Amino acid sequence: MPTTVDAPKRVFPEVAEIPADVRMDFYGAADRYLVGGEVRLWSGPRQRVLSPVCVAGSGGCGGPFELGEYPLMTAEAALEVLDAACRAYGQGCGRWPTMSVADRIHHLESFIPRMQAVREEVVCLLMWEIGKSRADSCKEFDRTVDYIRDTIEALKELDRNSSRFAVEQGFVAQIRRSPLGVVLCMGPQNYPLNETFTTLIPALIMGNTVIFKPPKYGVLLHAPLLEAFASSFPPGVVNTVYGDGPTVVGPLIESGRVDVLAFIGSAKVASLLKHQHPRPNRLRCVLGLDAKNAAVVLPDADLDLAVSECVLGALSFNGQRCTAIKIIFVHRSLADEFAQRFARKVEQLKVGMPWDDGVHITPLAEQGRPEWFKGLVDEAVAAGAKVINRGGGTIDQTLFYPAVVYPADLKTRICQIEQFGPVTPIVPYDDEREVIDWVVASPFGQQAALFGNDPQRLSRLIDPLVNQVSRVNINSQCQRGPDKFPFVGRKDSAEGTLSVSDALRVFSIRSLVAAKSTEPNQRIVSGIVSGRCSKFLSTDFIF
Fold first, then answer.
1. How far from the centroid of its chain's Cα atoms is residue 473's Cα?
2. Helix (H, G, I), strand (E, B), or coil: what is residue 423?
3. What is the rounded CA–CA span in Å between residue 106 and residue 299?
4. What is the DSSP code (8-state) at residue 498?
5. N or C: which end of the chain has fewer CB within 10 A?
6. 405: closest CA among 393, 417, 420?
7. What does the pLDDT look like over 265-282, one tens digit per residue?
8. Is the CA virtual torsion 329, 335, 336, 342 positive or negative?
9. Whole-angstrom Cα distance, residue 175 to residue 512?
C-alpha cells in the first residue's frame, strides 16, 4: 500500500486482494435490538450502512462497500424500550437495584467470557464500519474487557470501605452508595465500543438499568453482544435503541423518566438534550464533549521527542480522538525546523486499509468529511499558510491524506474549532503569554501537552493551564489513560469525571441508614447484620 500520494494511485483493494480472515459479506445480523431481556427482530424500516472501505471493481474504481443494515426505530418502539428499563428498575424496588453488590458483580463477571467469545467478529466490524486499524480495533476490544475487570475490582474496594459502621455524636450509621435510576448511554463514533462501555459498565454495576444507543457510525459492531447481554443480566437491565436521534432520543428525554444522561459527543447536542428534559434539575449528566487540545513546544524542547509525540498525538486513528492534539504552538526560534521535521514524519505514515500491517491513515467513516477538511485547509491557505507535506489534503474517495498547515493564522477556523481529523495547524509564537491567552479564550478545556526541559519555564505554563484544562502532559501527547486516572474537562469539554473509580461515584449517590446509638437500636442493627436480613445494611466482605 502507498505511503504518500506520489506512490501508485490505487489504494482501495479489489475483492480478491482482501485477506480471507477479514473479508466481509453483507452483515445481516444487525437487524435486532434488545428489550426486556429479549433480542427481537426489527420488522420496520432500516438504515443502510456503507463501509468507509471502498472495494474496487476489476481493474477500476469502486465505491463504499455495503456492509449491512440496522433498525430505524420509531418513537413508539423507543418508549417501549424505556418502559422495559423502568420496569426493571421498579422505582428503586426492582430486582437489580436491590440486589447485593456481590450478586451484581457475579452477573458482570458472567458477561466477560460471553463478550470474549465474539472478539474476532467485533474487531472485524470495527475495521469495516469505522475504518479503525486492526491493531487499534484489537486494542479497543481488549482495553474494554480490562476496563470491566478493573471496574469490578474498584467496586469491591469501594464496598469494603463501606462495610464498616460509622459512630458519630451518639449515632451509628452505615454509608453506602445507591443507584440513581434509568441511565441513557450514548457513545461516540471514534470509540463506539470502549467509550460506550466506560459509562454503561459502571452504570450497570452500581444498580442502575441502562438503555444504550450506539453512534451513527459504529452500530453494527454491537450486534454480536446482544445475546451476551441478554444471557448475563435480568430482563430489562440492559436495553438498546437504534435510529435517528431526534426520533428516538428526543421522546426518551422528554418523557422525564430518564434519570441520568451519559453522552459523549458535541456540546451542541448535549445542551439540546438537557433542555428537552421536563425536570432538568433531576437529570444528572455525565458528558464528554468537544476538545481543542494544544501542544506547546518550548525553546529548549527535545525536538525529536516533541515531533514524535505530536505526530502520534495528532494523527493516531486519523486524529479522530477527543484527546488528540489539534493545534501545535512552537516557539518561533524552532518553528521552521519543527514544522519541516513534523511534515517529513507525517509523510512516512502508512496509508491503507484497516487490516494492513503498520497502517496509520485509514478511510474515514463519516460521509462528506474529506471535503469538509479540504474546506478548512483551503481557508487556512487563503489566509497565508501552506500545506507543507507532500500530498497533504489530497482526497481519494473516503481517504483524506493528512495536511500539515504552517504557519497557521489563529483567526482561521482550523485554529478555533475542533477539526477531529487529519489536519494539523502549526502556529509560531514569540511569548508564552500568547499561548496562555489563546487557551483562556478557548471554549474548550480538556488537556494540553508541554514540551521542554526548563523547570522554571514549564512551571510558568503549568500553573495557569491547570486552571484552564484538566490535564497537563509534560513531554508526552494528550491521552485518556491510564483508566484509573481521572478523565474530565472544563468549560465546554465535559461534565462529570470518569475513571474506573470516579465513574462508580458518578452513577450512584451516597445513602445511609442511621440510628441513635441506644442499646435497643444496637440490638436491632446487630440482628439485621448477623441475620443477613438486609443487602444494604451489611458487613459482608467481598474478596
1. 20
2. strand
3. 54
4. B
5. C
6. 393
7. 999 999 999 999 999 999
8. negative
9. 4
User: In whole angstroms, what separates CA 363 from the centre of its chain?
Assistant: 19
Q: How many C-alpha atoms does 240 have within 13 Å on its Cβ side?
A: 30
Q: Is the dihedral of CA 405, 408, 411, 417 positive or negative?
A: positive
Task: Please report the pLDDT score of residue 484 as a whole number.
Answer: 85
Residue 289: partners with Cβ closer than 8 Å, 6 or more residues away: 264, 265, 266, 267, 270, 322, 489, 492, 493, 494, 495
CA distances from 393 to 190, 211, 371, 389 (A): 21, 40, 9, 9
Q: Is 128 helix (H, G, I), strand (E, B) or coil?
A: helix
Adjacent-strand bridge partners of 284: 260
Contact in structure between 132 and 468 (CB atoms under 8 Å): no
Which position has the grid cell 453506602? 176
User: What SS3 state is found at 13?
Assistant: coil
Residues of the chain with CATH 3.40.309.10: 293-483
H helical segments located in 68-208: 75-89, 101-116, 119-130, 134-162, 194-205
CB within 8 Å of 528: residues ≥ 6 apart: 534, 537
DSSP state of 10: -
Q: Which three cell numbers stand for residue 473?
A: 502532559
The pLDDT tens digits of the residues spanning 461-481 come to: 999 999 999 999 999 999 998
In the chain, CATH 3.40.605.10 sits at 21-288
Vertex 179: Cα angle to 174 and 183 (nearest 5): 170
d(C-alpha 333, C-alpha 299), whole Å: 7
- Residue 398's SS3 state is coil
- The whole-angstrom separation of Cα 6 and Cα 75 is 50
Integer Cα distance of 112 and 169 in angstroms: 45
According to DSSP, the residues that pair with 297 across neighbouring strands are: 330, 451
The gap between the terminal CA atoms of the chain, to the nearest Å, is: 51
2-6, 30-34, 252-256, 527-531: segment of lowest average pLDDT: 2-6
For 351-375, the DSSP string reads: B--TTSTT--B----STTHHHHHHH
Whether the pLDDT of residue 102 is over 50: the answer is yes
Is the pTM higher than 0.70? The answer reads yes
Taking Cα atoms as reference points, which of 31, 279, 180 lies closest to residue 503? 180
CATH fold of the domain at 293-483: Aldehyde Dehydrogenase; Chain A, domain 2 (3.40.309)
Write the CATH number of the domain with boundaries 21-288.
3.40.605.10
SS3 track for 229-261: HHHHCCCCCEEECCCCHHHHHHHHHHCCCCCEE
